[in-house]
Amino acid sequence: MAVPALKIDGAEVLLDAWPEPAGEAGWARAVRARAARRLAERGAPVRRDEYWKFTDPTSLTAEPALPAALLADDEKPMLDGADQLRVVFLDGVLAPGESDALAMEGVEIRPLAEVLATDITWARELFGALEERGQVPVDRPLAALNTARATEGLAIRVTGRAPRPVHLVYRRSRPEAEALVRHLVRLEAGADLTLLESGPAAARFNSVTEVEVAAGAAFHHVRTQGRDHERRAATALFARLGEKSLLKSFTLTVNGRLTRNEHVVEFTGDEAVAHVAGACVGDGEFHHDDTVFITHDALACESRQVFKKVLRGAATGVFQGKILVKPGAQKTDGYQISQALLLDETSQFLAKPELEIYADDVVCSHGSTSGAVDEDALFYLTSRGIPRRSAEELLVLAFLDQAIAEVEDPGLGDELRERLAAWLERRRQ
Amino acid sequence: MLEISNLHVKLEEEDKAILKGVDLAVKAGEVHAIMGPNGSGKSTLSYVLAGREGYEVTDGTATLEGRDLLGLEPEERAALGLFLAFQYPVEIPGVGNMTFLRTALNAQRKARGQEELNPAAFLKLVREKAKSLHIDAEMLKRPVNVGFSGGEKKRNEILQMAVLEPRMCILDETDSGLDVDAMKLVADGVNALRGPDRAFLVITHYQRLLDHIVPDVVHIMADGRIVASGGPELALEVEMNGYADILKSVA
Question: Which of A3, A55, A100, A370 has its CA 20 to 30 A from that of A121?
């Protein structure tokens, strides 16, 4: 079927908005060219696309990006800690002066531009590779744009147990700044890394991370997306999992006019585990979309998708989660749950769970609910003297907890819980 | 302590009268029991006093130590010292029992202008109260009532009562679903709280709970009214002859 001209023109606009990267190695140029061609041929996302029908991509693709007011934030930074390697991006640009030295035992960490200018085997094998695989069967045009144009980001190779988490801190200084950021992460066999991300990054943020998790390696990812009300973000995490490896990714989203978080995970080694989770809280002009595609192409892998959304004031939540079990991927254990707590009549939750299974010895299930606060629980709490608003907050936190519980580090989990409680309380006052 | 006068209540959603003129006075230090057949309005009375939504008071008053209850939010009634032990305690996944108890206690203290209890003092208080009710640390850590057996839920109600130290305790069919041992444990917990400054209203379908929590006054409720009142012997009469005889004699 011919791709509509609207999509083709849109792709051209996207590609023209960012300069073609210069001074890179031939292999990188080739990857970029392929991605650009893919985007040009397949087109920009439009509302009529199957995977964009719940989320209007216009504000993610129209040029120029709409500015977003900077949040006057007096709080202490999220996910912060002394014992981490902090890398700061200011308006989407690496800020070495504000970052720690890019050095840590068991970890090679370099600016993306540096590895794309040279010939490093692991980077050559990874850059654009997982993104390209992830374009089938569903187009991911914004990720293709990222491959074609992004020059900012980090390339991280982990050969052992990383002694500290790597924390990517995204700060904003200009209300109109747009950002295109690309990270490459490779965990060698048995390696272990926690990657933290925090902050809103830009008025419009296009972020792609490709993660290769080799046999027996573990990748923990915890992210908070800042509280800037007007910012827009389209992020994608592409991961490929080797035998007995582990991926755990959790995202907390509070505020933001539009967020589209995609996870594209592929099991290629047996007995691997992937948990993808998210909690979001939105009030008013808030649209939050989790789109997940998990491909089981190995034996006895376990996947979990746990997404919880609390919505109020005409906010919208979207969940599109797919589990694809390929022929032969026996003993697959796949599960997804997506739930929305609607605090008023005007907010809405749109969910599209999909299971596509070509093996006969698997366990796959999904659940999706949306509903109001449980009045029985509310009465029980208030009858014990807890004021109604506090009781409602307790129930909101309880609702989100199943997703937060996916964060393995108890300290991080508790920090997320405390922050959420404080924000909810502050809004009450 | 608790004064109920000519209380008329109907369901908000439909035009159905449930309470049709309840009069009841419970003095400090007393234990009153309300018995009655199913559908007589016993549980409705307890919900209306605690402030549950869905009921409309069409006439009458209810006061706690002279303060009007019916215009208050549930949390305000609790802060005044009213406590309802639920017939069906609600399961609340994700909210830890300890968090719940601490939030409740401190909210009540705050409402009364008292200082909030610090975590260490709170922990000590709860452990002490939990011990006598055979509630172990594991149960305290779990989410509120989630996965609790019937007996555990009821013991948890009594624990809340012991920690919150209300002046007026209403027990709504606390004996339902309990075996004899569990009932005795619950009754012991209630008896330990009896005192000159505290009153109890024990709603029950059967007399057996009243063997363990011996009431000062027994009321029989039928069709939305209290139709007979007397001493503990009234409960025994119900046990022997059922409600039919009493209802006939007052008809």
Answer: A100
What proportion of chain B, given as a percentage, has pLDDT over 90?
Answer: 71
DSSP assignment letter at A97: G
Residue with tokens 């998790």: A213
**Amino acid identity, residue A333?**
D
pLDDT value of residue B31: 95
Question: Which residue of B lies nearest to A403 if distances are taken between CA atoms?
Answer: B94
* Interval B51-75: pLDDT, tens: 999 999 999 999 999 999 999 999 9
State the pLDDT at residue B208: 86
Q: Is A375–B53 a contact, with Cβ atoms under 8 angstroms apart?
A: yes
Q: Which residues of chain B neighbour A385 with C-beta distances below 8 Å?
A: 75, 78-79, 104-105, 107-108, 111, 164
SS3 (DSSP) at A198: strand
pLDDT of residue A81: 84
Structure tokens, A79? 């996910």
The answer to whether the peptide bond before residue A19 is cis (omega within 30 degrees of 0) is: no
For residue B157, give the nearest of B209, B98, B86 by alpha carbon.
B86
pLDDT at res. A255: 93
What would the DSSP string read from start to end of A276-314? EEEEEEEESS-EEEEEEEEEE-STT-EEEEEEEEEEESS
At residue B251 the predicted structure's pLDDT band, cuts being 50, 70 and 90, is low
State the SS3 of chain B. Answer: CEEEEEEEEEECCCCCEEEEEEEEEECCCCEEEEECCCCCCHHHHHHHHHCCCCEEEEEEEEEECCEECCCCCHHHHHHHCEEEECCCCCCEEEEEHHHHHHHHHHHHHHHCCCCCCCHHHHHHHHHHHHHHCCCCHHHHHCEECCCCCHHHHHHHHHHHHHHHCCCEEEEECCCCCCCHHHHHHHHHHHHHHCCCCCEEEEEECCCHHHHHCCCCEEEEEECCEEEEEECCHHHHHHHHHHHHHHHHHHC
Instruction: Give the span between the Cα atoms of A206 and A181, in whole angstroms.
Output: 6
Q: Would you mind telling me the total number of residues written for chain A in this entry?
A: 429
Concatenated DSSP letters of A145-175: HHHHH--BSEEEEE-SB-SS-EEEEEE---T
CA distances from A383 to A424, B62, B72, B104, B176 (A): 21, 17, 11, 9, 21
The residue in chain A having the minimum alpha-carbon distance to the alpha carbon of residue B91 is A377
Domain residue ranges of chain A, discontinuous segments joined by +? 16-32+44-372, 374-429
Extract the tokens encoding A103: 């050095």
Domains of chain B: 2-93+167-250 (3.40.50.300)
- B153-B157-B158 Cα angle (round to 5): 120
Residue A270 DSSP one-character state: T
Helix (H, G, I), strand (E, B) or coil at A370: strand
Please check whether residue A33 touches B, CB under 8 A. Answer: no
What's the Cα-to-Cα distance from B229 to each of B19, B59, B147, B200, B233, rounded to whole Å?
17, 22, 39, 16, 10
Regions of chain A short of the pLDDT cut 70: 1, 429
pLDDT at position A138, please?
96
How many CA atoms are closer than 13 Å to the CA of B204, on its beta-carbon side?
A: 28
What 8-state DSSP symbol labels residue A48? T
Q: Measure the CA–CA gap between A288 and A80, rounded to whole angstroms.
A: 25
Q: Which residues of B touch A417 (CB under 8 A)?
A: none
User: Does the beta-carbon distance from B107 to A376 stay under 8 Å?
Assistant: no
Q: Rounded CA gap, B161 and B199, in Å? A: 12
Nearest-10 crossing angle of helices B119-132, B180-193: 130
